[in-house]
Amino acid sequence: MWVPDLENIKQVAKNAGLDDIAVTGVEPLMEARAAIKDRKRQGLHAGMNFTYGNPERATDPAQIFEGAQSILVAVLRYKPPAVEEPQTSNPRTEVRVESPKGIVASYVCSDEYGMLRRGLTAVANYLEGFGARAEVVMDDNRLADRSVAARAGLGWLGRNTMLLHPELGSWTVIGSVVTDAPIQGRAENPHDGCGTCRRCSTDCPTGAIDEFGVLDANKCLAWLLQAKGIFPREYRTALGDRLYGCDDCQVLCPINDEAMDVSGTILPRDSKVDIVTLLDSSDEELMRQFGHWYIPRRRPEYLRRNALVVLGNSQSHDDREVDRVLKSCLMASEPLVRSHAVWAALRLGKKHLIGPDVAESLVEHDPDGIVRAELDEWGILLGSESQ
Ligand code: B12
Ligand code: SF4
Ligand code: SF4
Fold it and tell me: Which residue owns the Cα nearest ligand 3 atom 6?
C-alpha cells in the first residue's frame, strides 16, 4: 500500500483549517481505561454514559474497524470568552451577577464541531484518494479524544483534565481520522506543564477537581447543566449566570494566557442569551434555537430549568418582565419548571408571587413531589396547612 507522508497530511490539514495534527498507533489506551473504570467505580461519572458506557471500546481504537493501523488526531482552536466580563457567582465570595442574561460556554458559540468535522473529512478524503480506508471519529463514545491526542504528542493532560497544547492552550476541540494506512512520524510527548500550579483545583466554583486532577462530575457545572432531574440545590448559587457549559477552569489556567491565536481564523463569540426571552419561548422555538445543545431527553423544560436558576441568581428584583415570566413559570404544566420557578422567585425575594392559594395550585400534578419539596425548603405552607 502507498504510505502517505505526515508532512503532506499536515499541509492538507492546515489548508482545511485545522490548527495542528499528529499521528499515533491504535494500541489500547491502558491508562485512560484504568482512569475511566476507576472514576466509574467511585461514582464520579454521575451516571454519564459517553466513554463510561463501554470503557474497553472507548480505549481500544483498533475496534473502530478491522485493519485500522494509525490515528491522525487534530485540534481546532476556538475563541475564548472575553475575560473582562465578570461571569461567575462564586459561593465563596457571594458575588451576584448583574442582569438576566445567561452565559454560553465558548465551545458552542460557533460551529466548532462542524468546522472540525469538515477539516477531518478533508484529511480522510485525501487518504481515501490513495486507496486507504479512513473514518472520522470525533466527540464519539468510541474514542477517548483527550487521551489519544496526548499520546499523539499534541499536549499534556492538565490538572483540569483538559488537553493543554503547548502553543494553543486548551481552547480546542479534538477529533481523529482512523485509517488503515501505516503512517509514521510520532511526535515527542510534551512534558506536564502544570508544575506546582493548582488554580483549577482551588478555584473551581464547586470544588469539582481534586488535588490530582480527577473531576467529580457530580459537582461539575458543565455536567449538571446537562444532567436529568432537578438542578442540585447546593450548586444553584454557584451556577451564577452559566446557562450552558462552564469555562472557568480554562479561563483561570495560566497556560491559556500564553496561548496564541496561531491560526488567526478564530470566530467571534456571541455568548449571551436573554433569559426572559428564553422563558417566553415556545418548545418549538427553544428547540430551533438550542436544539444543537445536549439537552436531557431532548426536553425543553431542561432549558427552562437552567434559565430559572440563572434568573434566581440575577439581581432582577424590580423588573416587571421578570415578575411576568416567573408567574407564567409558576403555572407551567411541568413540575420541574414550577419547582425551579419557586426557587428563583424566592431567591429574588418575591414571596408575594407565591401566596397560599398559588402554593396550593403549584403542588397539583406533582407526582415526584419536587415542587412540594422546594416549598418545604423555604418553609412555605400550603393554604390548608396555614389554617
Ligand atoms: C464526558 C465528557 C465530559 C464530561 C466529563 C468531563 C471529564 N473531565 O471527564 C463533562 C460533561 C463534565 C464535560 C465537560 C467539558 N467538556 Co467534555 N467531554 C466528555 C467526553 C464525551 C468524554 C471524556 C471522558 O472520557 N471522560 C472520562 C474521564 C475519566 O476522562 P479524563 O478525566 O479526561 O481523564 C482522561 C485522561 O486524564 C487520561 N488519564 C487519566 N489518568 C491518567 C494518567 C496518565 C498517566 C495518563 C497518561 C493519562 C491519564 O485518561 C482519561 C480518559 O481519557 C469527551 C469526548 C470524548 N469522546 O473523549 C468530551 C471532551 C473531553 N470535552 C471537551 C470539552 C470542550 C468540555 C468542556 C470544556 C465544555 C464546557 N466548556 O463546558 C468541559 C470541561 C470540563 C472539564 N474540566 O473536563 C473536549 C475537550 C477538549 C480539550 N482541549 O481538552 C472533548 C475532548 C470533546 C471534543 N472532542 O473536543 N465533558
Ligand atoms: S467546568 Fe466549571 S465546574 Fe466543571 S470542573 Fe471546570 S471550573 Fe469546575
Ligand atoms: S490551572 Fe494550573 S494546574 Fe490547572 S490545568 Fe492550568 S496549569 Fe494545570
Answer: 253
Instruction: State if residue 159 touches ligand 3 by the CB under 6 angstroms criterion.
Output: yes
Among all ligands shown, which has an atom nearest to the Cα of 245? 1
Taking only the tens place, the pLDDT of each residue in 305-361 is 999 999 999 988 778 999 999 999 999 999 999 999 999 999 999 999 998 888 889
86 Cα to the center of ligand 3, angstroms: 20
Q: What is the pLDDT of residues 118-147, one digit of tens each?
A: 999 999 999 999 999 999 999 999 999 999
Please give the Cα distance from 202 to 204 (Å, whole number): 6
For residue 339, the one-letter residue type is S
In angstroms, the Cα distances linking 128 to 44, 135, 179, 216, 365 are 40, 10, 9, 41, 57
Among the bound ligands, name the one nearest to the CA of residue 163: 1
Domain boundaries, the chain: 6-81+105-179, 275-387
Q: Residue 178's beta-bridge partner residues?
A: 71, 135
CA distance to 10, 161, 179, 280, 356, per residue, from 137 (Å): 18, 20, 11, 38, 55
